[in-house]
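Reviewer 2 asked us to include a model.

Predict the structure of this chain.
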Amino acid sequence: MKDEQDKSIEFIRDTFKEKGFKKAVIGVSGGLDSAVVATLCVKALGCNNVIGVCLPRRPIKSSFPDIEERTDIELIEKLCCSFRHSTIRPLERVFEDLDYGSSKLRMGNILARIRMIILFDIASEYNGLVVGTSNKTELALGYFTLHGDGACALEPIGHLYKTEVKKLAKYIGVPKHIIEKRPSAELWEGQYDEDELGASYEVIDKILQGKTPAGKDDIAKQILARVEKNKFKLEMPTIKSPNNTQDTNSLSCRIKPLSIQEKLENEFGEWLCIQGLSIPDKNCDIFIDKCMKIINKDNE
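Predicted model (structure tokens):
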């Protein structure tokens, strides 16, 4: 796991350098994924550049009686990074008053988006980046809220399956009780990931890796159907391209760069037409050399 730790740390450092930021803002839930991401960010950026934010539904003591000793605060103290805490209950109550609270799923999505609104505001305050805590399993399943926990500038563990995150957590020293805690987004009372997904992460990861355990064919069908149904969550909004077709960009959030041929056409199309030249599909370097010889000859 040392190699994985080092590569993840390098990824975080490089991403922050590339984007021109120094401060990381992370939603710390007391769960495994956020604990791993917070630890990696502290190792990559230093404790003074990491702000952990806890946003429970209820005030800490009434919602999670032992949280101060066992989860968020203990982790933050261990990492020695900055800590912000606030209950989101007043904002939740607003949506309940508007009659949005009848569906657990809808309210759960609302809470995830409320949390992300706060995280992005804190990131603005510190001129930092919001760091995501989703793993590869969750991303593949679409087990996240669009513009909620799926909104961030980077996903340091987005390439790791949940079971791999657990191994990395042990290696980097995440507290044992956090590693063993039953996975839950805590969006409503008694909500647990594996109950919703219909299988343990160990089984799900094997299915996603094409290694379906014996006797799990029915579950595999459900899991793969979910992947197909939710793959739109990993795509950027569909944008109409100049030739009137749909151009869907991937999660990389980058517009497809122009090819060398397209650049030549844009810059020198008229001149090439006068010269009676056409742009080749291949060997553009040789073609460019040919053009330069013509230009140099004209300038003599």
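Residues 61-69, 250-255 have pLDDT under 50 and may be disordered. The chain has 15 helices and six strands. We have added this to the supplementary material.
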